[in-house]
Design goal:
Strand 11 and strand 12 form a beta hairpin. The radius of gyration is 19 Å and the shape is globular. With 354 residues, the protein is an alpha/beta fold. Strands 3-2-4-7-1-8-12-11-9-10 form a ten-stranded mixed beta sheet. The chain has a two-stranded antiparallel sheet with strand order 5-6. It is built from eleven helices and twelve strands. The protein starts with 9 loop residues before the first strand and ends with a strand.
């Protein structure tokens, strides 16, 4: 059980992100990241020296060079020496590590950031490196083809159909019209098939972006934010690596993570789901038991902006931001990594009672 103990409450107190774009070739990762770091610190009035722990998430495969995350530290300021860590994962998992650090009492504040530039290469090919290196990766099935297998499995099971998938895409991108950071906004034609049954509209945009959040514990959080988004529980679970031994129409790891995070104890009013493909939202809604009364992806979700390595952290940040401004009282945030929802993290956030 990984719910936060009552004597050590931890909250998201600030969130910032870039305007996500198809390409940012004129910017290095540091140049893309620095405005976000300045913004998230400005929201709290903190300086870099006030941060007890820093954790980042990124991928060397996207950057095309080893230990690329060390260059990003130039944007944070690593001198004088700081307490710092990095995960080769989406920033949601960096937040998980920072949350654990604060739980121990070793830190009272943490800066979490993540970034990804997908534009320089072929994301569909890069993501094959996540697959089993002996039996699957040598076949080079790309990320869209694998998502299409999952979508077809759902259709064959009678859980959805192509018009229903188109409706998911339309609703998400219509919601993004009010999100100034989204890459795609407003309704658009579903377009041609990319890999049947997935059309262009069923797939996420390729783009570049970054995000950052600040965590704080107890009264420190109340000092830094008028309405902190308290993390009531957070949990991460993993499916089997082999696609052939999984039921792609379900996500038991998401369900278990949600249960351990306390998501089913009381209803949530908002859910930010990291579902890069329309069919994955169908799977997640079922696993998380989300009814029609829950506002799902009011930001537009990953179908509106999907900066790899930051999209999961953005789901947590977007959920927290709604609590900060009073638009939500209890929100669920979900992040995923790997093919067909292989790894899943669920966080439950709440605002102070009004």
């Amino acid at each position: 059980m990984t719910s936060a103990p009552q004597d050590r409450e931890i909250a998201v107190v600030a969130f910032a992100q870039t305007a996500h774009r198809r390409t940012s070739e004129e910017l290095s990762e540091v140049e893309m990241l620095m405005p976000v770091l300045h913004e998230v610190l400005d929201r709290t009035g903190l300086k870099t020296s006030d941060i007890d722990f820093t954790c980042s998430g990124s991928s060397d495969y996207l950057a095309g060079r080893a230990f690329s995350f060390t260059l990003a530290l130039d944007g944070v300021g690593a001198w004088p020496p700081i307490s710092e860590s990095h995960v080769e994962m989406d920033g949601a998992w960096a937040l998980y590590e920072a949350w654990t650090k604060l739980l121990t009492g070793d830190a009272d504040t943490a800066l979490v950031y993540s970034y990804g530039k997908s534009s320089p290469g072929s994301v569909r090919d890069v993501l094959t490196r996540q697959l089993d290196p002996y039996y699957v990766a040598p076949l080079w099935p790309d990320s869209v083809a694998l998502a299409a297998l999952q979508a077809q499995a759902l259709i064959d099971a009678g859980d959805t159909d192509e018009p229903a998938l188109a409706a998911v895409a339309s609703r998400n991108r219509e919601a993004a019209t009010t999100n100034p950071h989204a890459q795609l906004r407003g309704r658009a034609p579903q377009g041609d098939y990319v890999v049947q049954p997935l059309r262009t509209g069923d797939c996420p945009p390729v783009g570049d972006g970054a995000a950052a959040v600040i965590l704080a514990a107890g009264d420190r959080a109340r000092d830094l934010c008028d309405r902190p988004a308290w993390i009531r529980g957070i949990d991460h679970r993993i499916e089997a690596h082999g696609l052939g031994v999984r039921d792609l129409t379900d996500s038991p790891s998401t369900r278990l993570a949600a249960e351990r995070a306390g998501a089913f104890e009381r209803p949530v009013d908002t859910a930010e789901l990291h579902a890069p493909f329309t069919a994955q939202e169908i799977v997640l809604r079922k696993a998380l038991r989300l009814g029609e009364d829950v506002d799902v992806n009011p930001s537009g979700g990953a179908l509106a902006a999907n900066p790899i390595m930051a999209a999961g952290l953005i789901r947590i940040g977007e959920a927290a931001a709604r609590i900060h401004r009073g638009a939500s009282d209890r929100a669920l945030a979900h992040a995923t990594s790997g093919p067909c929802l292989q790894q899943n993290l669920v966080a439950v956030l709440e605002g102070e009672r009004r």
